[in-house]
Specification:
Helix content: 55-70%
Number of strands: 3
Largest sheet: 3 strands, antiparallel
Structural class: alpha+beta
Shape: globular
Length: 116
């Protein structure tokens, strides 16, 4: 994986201009990885919307993904040049009510059988 640091930082910051992507990244940051269906259930949005945001983040190399059977799992790319910046941003976002609520919903969702 190669990086053009200035260009990658610019793409990274552009990716953070969408609130749904910030919510997704906050959820991914709270776990080692999540499946698309996990994010759909927690965010209560369509699979196509979540997948579009994840594809954008993947194309900017901010997240990694892999397939296990029919499930596609996503995780934050810890090798991205702006990973430490992301961690600082996510730490600040963790105090917001919407982010706290997403994490509470995720915790409750994980107590039930997987819905995908």
């Amino acid at each position: 994986m190669t990086f053009n640091l200035l260009e990658d930082h610019a793409h990274f910051h552009k990716a953070l201009t969408e609130p749904s992507r910030l919510r997704i990244l906050s959820l991914l940051n709270s776990r080692d990885f999540l499946c698309v269906c996990d994010l759909v259930s927690v965010l209560e949005t369509s699979q196509s919307t979540v997948s579009r945001h994840l594809a954008y983040l993947k194309n900017k190399q901010i997240v990694n993904c892999w397939r296990e059977g029919t499930w596609i799992h996503y995780a934050i790319n810890k090798d991205h040049p702006a990973y430490s910046v992301l961690q600082t941003i996510l730490l600040g976002l963790a105090t917001l009510a919407d982010i706290k609520q997403d994490k509470q919903i995720l915790a409750g969702y994980e107590q039930t059988p997987r819905q995908c």
